[in-house]
Structure formats: structure tokens, C-alpha cells
Specification:
It contains 16 helices and no strands. With 430 residues, it is mostly helical. The longest helix is centred in the middle third of the chain and has 35 residues. The chain starts with a helix and ends with a helix.
Length: 430
């Protein structure tokens, strides 16, 4: 359930239409999802072994400080801090698109109202968490289960009598064109699969990690890949491959075809509820990452400050919300945000995967008995090469997003020097 909740957000309810437009043919469409699922499993196994070998409290960012120079480690983690805020914005926009037809009169439905709803969602959750009111683990499990049940129910539409007559797609693609289309599709596919890297946090808390971590990852990823393939088949068979390209609310259209107008509205509310749960988790988790970084003196001590009454990291939470607002107004539109996120995310995962080679070399004589992936180094190498291919695809499709990603990464260098100077001055004053 943890692996499933990490990965299944709202991408699967938004990206398939965009992927269909990029793919051109059903073959490229399905091949992109299959390849994305396989590579994500390779990545999850790589991250699982890293987490088992270095089960440090504080999570994903510590592997960089262990394996790389402190400056480079900070630059990687600084980029991650930024893209997490961008990811929250992307999810909020999808949630706003789905709930808009339910709560906004038809005459007022436009991109402005979507933006207003998204900002309202994010502001509400910020204030909720700032007051110290947080959703518990049981609520999160219920929301994750709701997503699984909803996807399975949507897949039932395949068995209805309202399946569209899909015209045969006869587009001819050269090998180079098909390869380019695959690369563009993988950008959105990996957005839908992102999150499995958080399994690195399971290493310190899992009983018998050598057995249970791979079982959890295989089980979780099997559920995710199966659900994604089932619902994509349902999208194509019920809505139609060509029609998918013009349907921003695919899940609602699928539900409407099987359950009628009531299904459209119910699905909108369910997706919106899923968005709230996902975003609330982001508001709870990200300030804690800052706390761990401040403990290692990577960030200033103020990020460790906790309100004794509400147990809220007020400064860390406000900082995260500020990054969200910056991302929202600087990178407008779901597709632009996805390109911006995926470039940094893929480069971060490449450097994270390389740490496995570092850890294996350093622990060669440590009698390590934890989880060890099979077919090493094949899976990590496949993972790294495909991610680099996706980064190249982002570069080819959106040069500005690539420039922003590189700029965010490089901005970490002067920031690191500044924060180190602030830390040194604090020691002198003490």
C-alpha cells in the first residue's frame, strides 16, 4: 500500500490523452506505458537496494551526501526541493480541472477558474497544516484504496455497450519518428510513475528487508502497472484513441460512458478527494525533509523550529508554500510543469542510481547481507540510460524547461556557499 500510494497520484487521469497525442499510433501509446512500467520497476529495485544498504533516517537526500561531494549533494537536493513544489502545483491543477464542472457554472468555466480553484486548494491545505490539523495514516490509506477501487470500477466500462467504433489508425512512422514519439511519450509516462524512489525510506523500518522490500516493490509495482494498463485499454476501447486527444477529463468521460451523468460527477469528486489526500501528504512530508537537512546543517536552524503547541514546522511549511506559489505563477500550465519536473527528477534519479555502484564498492568487504538485486548491473544501467533518453526528449521538446531545470540545479551552488557562510557566522556568534 505504501508503494502504491507513493506512485498513484492523478497523472493516470490526465496524461494518457497527452500521451496519445504524442504517440500518433496505439502501438507507440501502449509500448510507452509498458516500457515506462518496466523501467520504473528497474528503478524501484535499484532504489530498494540503496535504501537497504544505507537505511538512514531522513530519507532520500542522505544518499547524495554519503556518495558525493557536499556541494554537489546540496545542489541535487536543492533541485528536489524545488520540483516537489512544482509537483504539488501540477496535481492541484488536475484536481481543479476535475472539480470545476461540478462546482462552477458552465458559463464561468475557463482556465482562470481552474487557477483560482487550484490556488484555493493549496492555500486551504497550507492553513490547515499550519494550524496543526493533519490527516492521519488511516485516512491516507482510505484515500489510496479509493483510488485503486475507482480505477477498477472505471475499467468495467470496457464491458459496457457504449464502446466507440475505433477507426483503424494507419499513420506510417519511420524508425526515427517512432523513437522520437516514444521519447516524448515517456516524459508524461514517467510523471505518472514518479514516486517509487520514496521506497528508499523503507530500509530502516522494514523487518527482514532482504525478503520484504523486494516483495513489497514487486507487489506494489505489479498492482500499479496492471491498473495503468487496464485503464489505458479502457480509455482506448471506450473513448477511442483519436477522441482521447481532445478529452482533458478522461476518467470522467470513461465513467459517463458506463454509469451516465451521475458517474461523471461522482468520478470528479473522487479524483478531487484523491488530490486533497496527495497534496496533504506533500504538505506534511516536505517540511520534514527540510528538518532532516537542517539537522545535518545543510539548511539554517530555523527549518528545525517546531511550534510546541501545534507541532508544526511553521517556517518550513511556509517556505514550501512559498515555493508552490512561485512555481504556480512562473510555470503556468500542466504540460510545462511536467517537462520542468521530469527533467530535474530524471537527472536526480540518474545520480541516485549511480550511488548504488558507489555503495557496492565501499561495502565490498562489509559482509552485507541485506537485499541485493539480481542481474546487477543490468537493471541500474537500463534505468540510467532510459532516464537520460527522457532528459534528451525534454531538451528536444521544451528547451526553456530544460534551461530552467539546469538553472535551478546550478543555483544551488551559490546558495550552498551562502548557507555555509551563514552557518559559520552562527557558530562564531555562539
Amino acid at each position: 500500500m505504501v508503494v502504491v500510494s507513493f506512485v498513484i497520484g492523478v497523472g493516470i487521469f490526465k496524461t494518457p490523452g497527452l500521451i496519445a497525442a504524442e504517440a500518433g499510433t496505439p502501438f507507440i501509446f501502449y509500448a510507452s506505458w509498458i516500457l515506462g512500467g518496466f523501467v520504473s520497476v528497474c528503478g524501484a529495485l535499484t532504489i530498494a537496494e540503496i535504501g537497504a544498504r544505507l537505511p538512514a533516517a531522513g530519507g532520500y537526500y542522505r544518499i547524495f551526501s554519503y556518495s558525493y561531494h557536499p556541494t554537489f549533494a546540496f545542489m541535487c537536493n536543492w533541485a528536489l526541493v524545488i520540483i516537489n513544489a512544482g509537483g504539488a502545483v501540477a496535481v492541484a491543477l488536475v484536481g481543479a480541472e476535475y472539480i470545476q464542472p461540478v462546482i462552477v457554472p458552465a458559463a464561468w468555466q475557463n482556465t482562470i477558474s481552474v487557477s483560482v480553484i487550484a490556488i484555493s486548494i493549496l492555500t486551504f491545505l497550507f492553513l490547515l497544516n499550519y494550524a496543526g490539523i493533519k490527516m492521519g495514516a488511516k485516512v491516507q490509506n482510505v484515500l489510496s484504496s479509493l483510488k485503486i477501487i475507482m480505477i477498477l470500477l472505471l475499467c468495467l466500462a470496457v464491458f459496457g455497450n457504449k464502446t466507440v467504433n475505433n477507426p483503424a489508425v494507419t499513420i506510417q512512422q519511420s524508425t526515427s519518428t517512432a523513437l522520437a514519439a516514444m521519447g516524448f511519450c515517456l516524459i508524461k509516462v514517467f510523471f505518472s510513475f514518479r514516486g517509487y524512489q520514496n521506497t528508499i525510506n523503507l530500509g530502516a523500518d522494514t523487518k527482514d528487508p532482504q525478503r520484504n522490500i523486494p516483495l513489497a516493490i514487486f507487489g506494489g509495482m505489479f498492482i500499479i502497472v496492471t491498473l495503468y494498463m487496464l485503464i489505458n485499454i479502457a480509455y482506448v476501447q471506450v473513448i477511442g484513441f483519436e477522441n482521447m486527444k481532445n478529452k482533458p477529463l478522461l476518467a470522467c468521460e470513461l465513467a459517463k460512458s458506463f454509469f451516465g451523468d451521475a458517474g461523471f460527477k461522482i468520478t470528479s469528486v473522487i479524483v478531487f478527494t484523491s488530490v486533497l489526500g496527495f497534496l496533504n501528504t506533500a504538505f506534511m512530508n516536505n517540511p520534514r525533509i527540510y528538518y532532516a537537512m537542517a539537522e545535518d546543517k545543510i539548511l539554517p536552524p530555523i527549518f528545525k523550529k517546531v511550534n510546541d503547541k501545534t507541532q508544526t514546522q511553521e517556517f518550513g511549511l511556509s517556505f514550501f508554500f512559498g515555493l508552490i506559489l512561485f512555481s504556480f505563477f512562473f510555470l503556468r500550465g500542466f504540460e510545462r510543469i511536467v517537462d520542468y519536473i521530469i527533467f530535474i527528477d530524471c537527472m536526480s534519479l540518474v545520480f541516485a542510481a549511480i550511488t548504488l555502484f558507489v555503495l557496492r564498492r565501499r561495502m565490498k568487504n562489509d559482509n552485507y547481507t541485506g537485499f541485493r538485486m539480481k542481474l546487477y548491473p543490468l537493471f541500474p544501467v537500463i534505468f540510467i540510460l532510459v532516464l537520460l533518453f527522457v532528459c534528451g526528449s525534454v531538451f528536444a521538446s521544451d528547451l526553456l524547461a530544460t534551461g530552467v531545470g539546469i538553472g535551478v540545479f546550478l543555483a544551488g551552488y551559490p546558495l550552498f556557499l551562502l548557507l555555509r557562510k551563514v552557518s559559520e557566522n552562527s557558530k562564531i556568534s555562539e
